[in-house]
Design goal:
alpha+beta; Arc Repressor Mutant, subunit A; Elongation Factor Tu (Ef-tu), domain 3; six-stranded antiparallel beta barrel; 8 helices; elongated
Length: 226
C-alpha cells in the first residue's frame, strides 16, 4: 500500500479510529495538501478501509474492520523485522467434523507436490478441523494471516483454479508433527484452524469429535531483512 495511505490510516487510528476531522487537518498531519488528503480518503473508502459520514461541520471518518486489519498486518510485520515476534504460538481447540473438503483438496497433485517441497512430507488426504476455544486462539489465527508462512501457490487442475494456501509447521499434542494451513478460499471463520500431517491425525492421536487438542505453531522460519 502507498505510504501516504498508510499514514492516513495511522492518523485516524491515533485520533481514536472514529475521528471527526477535516481533509485540511489530515493533510497537515501527514504533510500533504487538502486536495491530496481528500483524494487519499476517497481511495481508502473505495478500498473499504474507512467509512465516512458527512455532517454540517465536516466529516466523521471511521476505520473499518479491513482498515484495522491492514494496520494489524503492518504491526505484525514490523515485529518480525525487528526480532520482537515470538518464536511460537500455543493454543487449544476442539476437534469437530468439517465439510469434508480437506480430503478433496489434499488429493490434488498441485497441492501434494508443493506440500512435500515446503514441509517435507506428503500430507494424509484430509485435514483435522479444530474450533478454537478462546479469544487468544482467535487472535493468534488473525495474526497468522499477516505472517509470511510457507506459501503453497495457486494452480489450475481439472479445469478449475485452486487458491493459495499458507502453512505453518506445528506440533499436535506435542506428539505428532504437522502444519496449520490457512486456505485462501474457505468456508470457515476466524475461530477454526485446519491441520495437516503425513498421518491420519484422528487415528494417530486417538481423537474424536469434542476432544481438546493443543497446537504449538513454529514461527522460527519466518524472517524479513532490512
Amino acid at each position: 500500500m502507498e505510504s501516504k495511505l498508510l499514514l492516513i490510516l495511522l492518523s485516524i487510528a491515533e485520533l481514536g479510529g472514529n475521528a471527526f476531522t477535516s481533509t485540511s487537518g489530515l493533510g497537515r498531519r501527514i504533510g500533504v495538501s487538502q486536495q491530496s488528503a481528500s483524494r487519499y480518503l476517497r481511495i481508502l473508502e473505495e478500498k473499504g478501509l474507512i467509512s465516512r459520514r458527512i455532517t454540517g461541520k465536516g466529516q466523521v471518518i471511521t476505520l473499518t474492520k479491513a482498515g484495522l486489519d491492514e494496520l494489524r498486518g503492518l504491526f505484525t510485520r514490523l515485529k518480525i523485522i525487528f526480532g520482537e515476534a515470538v518464536p511460537f504460538f500455543t493454543l487449544k481447540g476442539v476437534v469437530f467434523t468439517g465439510f469434508g473438503e480437506g480430503a478433496y483438496y489434499m488429493s490434488k497433485k498441485g497441492y501434494i507436490t508443493q506440500f512435500e517441497k515446503q514441509l517435507g512430507f506428503k500430507p494424509f488426504p484430509g485435514t483435522l478441523n479444530i474450533k478454537l476455544i478462546d479469544e487468544n486462539g482467535i487472535r493468534v489465527k488473525r495474526e497468522l494471516q499477516f505472517m509470511p508462512g510457507k506459501l503453497i501457490k495457486s494452480f489450475r487442475e481439472d479445469n478449475r483454479s485452486f487458491g493459495d494456501v499458507k502453512c505453518f509447521p506445528a506440533s499436535i499434542n506435542g506428539r505428532v508433527d504437522g502444519a496449520v494451513v490457512l486456505i485462501e478460499r474457505t468456508h470457515y471463520g476466524d475461530d477454526v484452524l485446519e491441520v495437516v500431517s503425513k498421518f491420519n491425525l484422528r487415528e494417530a492421536l486417538s481423537l474424536k469429535d469434542g476432544d481438546i487438542v493443543e497446537l504449538t505453531i513454529n514461527l522460527s522460519f519466518n524472517s524479513y531483512t532490512l
